[in-house]
Design goal:
The complex is a heterodimer.
Chain A lengths: L5 H7 L12 H10 L32 E2 L5 E2 L1 E5 L26 H13 L5 E5 L6 H17 L6 E5 L6 H8 L4 E3 L7 H7 L5 H28 L7 H7 L7 E7 L6 H15 L3 E6 L18 H16 L4 H4 L13 H8 L6 E2 L5 H5 L6 H10 L7 H7 L3 H4 L3 E2 L12 H10 L6 H5 L20 H5 L1
Parallel strand pairs in A: 3-4, 4-5, 5-6, 6-7, 7-8, 9-10
Antiparallel strand pairs in A: 1-2
Chain B lengths: L1 E4 L4 H14 L6 E4 L11 E4 L4 H28 L11 H14 L13 H23 L3 E2 L5 E5 L6 H11 L5 E5 L4 E5 L5 E5 L15 H14 L8 H7 L16
Parallel strand pairs in B: 1-2, 1-3, 5-6
Antiparallel strand pairs in B: 4-5, 6-7, 7-8
Helix pairs in contact in B: 1-2, 2-3, 2-4, 3-4, 4-5
Classes of the chains: A alpha/beta, B alpha/beta.
Amino acid sequence: MITKSATTFITTSATSPALHFSKDLMEKLAILSDAAKYDVACTSSGVNRKGDGNGMGNSLACGICHSFSADGRCISLLKILYTNECIFNCSYCQNNCESDIPRATFTPEEVCTLTMEFYRRNYIEGLFLSSGIIVSPNYTMDLIYQTLYRLRNVYHFQGYIHVKAIPGADPLLIEKAGFLADRMSINLELPTADALRKLAPCKSRHTILKPMRQIQNSIIQNKNELSLYQNTSRKGTNNRFSLTEQSRFVPAGQSTQMIIGATPENDFQIMSVAEGLYQNFSLKRVFYSAFVNTTHNTNLPVLSGGPPLLREHRLYQADWLLRYYHFTISELLSEDRPNFNIYLDPKCDWALRHLEYFPVEINRADYKTLLRVPGIGAKSASRIVKARRGSRLDFPDLKKIGVVLKRALYFITCSGKMMYPTRLDEDYICRNLLSDYTQIPRELREEGYRQLSLFDDVNFGGDSNVYLSMRG
Amino acid sequence: MYIFQCEDSIDGIFTGIYDAFASHYGHKNIRLSTNSHEDMCLFSEYISVRTDIDKSQKVGRTLFKRFGIDFYETICKCALADGSFKKLSMDKANAIYQTIVMAFALPEAEKVLNFLGEPCIACLFELCRQTNNEGHHYLGFLRFFELENGLLFAKIAPKNNVLPILAEHFTNRLPLENFMIYDETHKLAIIHKAGKDYLTVDASELDLTLTRQYSANEENYQKLFKTFFHSIAIEARKNPKLQSQNIPKRFWANTVELADCQ
């Protein structure tokens, strides 16, 4: 450690020039961040990039949350619309051309200044730029492209950029923007083409899926070209790194989002669409957004209980099971049981219906079997597999590893013994799991939860399936 | 039993390890401790370790060369952790010592960190995770304030000594900025000059009034960010409990947007 007075450091640093600051910027930011708040894809993950020393910024694959807003959601990126002046009339969207709200449009310069100044104060991890459709899709996409170009090449910003591809924009513009962004997304908006036709007449499945396919193909093509380039110039020059860095196309992959609860699709339909997107379009993420009725359009349902947050939560849980736990949707839901259980998470629910796989012996079972145990996540499963090479594991060890024993204990044995004498019986386990107050979802607790009896036919959430009544 | 009492720092603990190995008392008869106020036991000999940079660097080099960078980093992060909380089953320095002894005894030493069934490894893992988690929190929750002369100043109050993690990160992220991160708990600071590497300095005599002289634009950007912070929240989804679960209240005081909400 080198000791030097910290105070001298402060007093001797050079002064910086005063920056230009416009007054109505505050108003614009208020309008255009408010207009962007229903977009949920605010992650900054998926790409590792070191700064090259000549600009500002870097990126971490794990993503960084910089703050959490009053709704508990993460603030990672400066999430704004370029403009909320929109020529489309999607009925679910507060920015549609028929609604009477204040309108504003940024300039590329303003977006760049905001991003740079927020980034250097460590308020944000990067920029999330979306937009209403001003004049035409091409005109809008071009403005977005110009902003990104300025940010990357004039301001030398090397942080994370998530940008929306505008449906209906020229493929060339999307291609050019993709080389400047880390992640691109096109919102699917609604799970089925029918719903889209009804609520968003200016958009169609075709104009959404076409750019999605284009981005997918460009990502694959870009990867192949880069690896070819790296192979041929292995012995090559020093600038290899910087050249590859600048010519990567959407390195963090693409994502999309669906609105949940505005149209009558069931969970099975929604998750089947998501599964299809992961498999056929190689999406990195599908986001689900509980519908909030802001426009009070006659096409839309009135949700008395507020946005369907619990349903959204269950969909995310199932989404995780698809991406990290090797589940398929047909294992979790079917035509006969089209909705998730609101009391139990999808994994617990699956385990209770497949007790023939349990109990699982911790010291012997393979990784994929461990993943299916409720209370054991991907991290603890891999820790278990590694740790048991050193010594036999017992229940206290599992707790230290991070296994949630109060859920897992019904499904596992350590060296042939269970933690407590429990029965491997569906009703017994279900009753015990739910007897713990904290295991009941908050929404249900606050709705006046009472102790469940197996013979009650209580129906809390409208037409959602209640676990016990459903199994009747 | 011989108990080596060392200073609570990487150098202190590494010196303790050097002395413990050099003493030839036998690993079973040795314990390391960073807590100088612990209840003394009868029939034990207490040896107080004087921190020595040379010895510490020798230990550091050996660990790095023999067991690789991952092992070395884990040990360092564990040494940076706050080892004073009560639930911990073992003293921090002792957990590190026992782990190193075990690593020397095994043919595949890098894998020793996976053996979470061993008490010392479990303890090491727990402490390392603690430092990592808090470090990662601060990567996001730290806020820079621009002072009159363009310097970016941040104040943090971490439980673990996370400055090295933050220093690496921000030096790479803001290479052309002059910045300073001040750790209130440990009275340390890192300073970074544009285009250079960072330095760790003792900040026990830092004049904090200097750090409140903001630049002309600073308050404007703070206001802008607060505006953004409030308008991005969805009223219909309001959930203060989830918010304070995700950003625990101890971080609020040093942020821009939540400082007045406490």
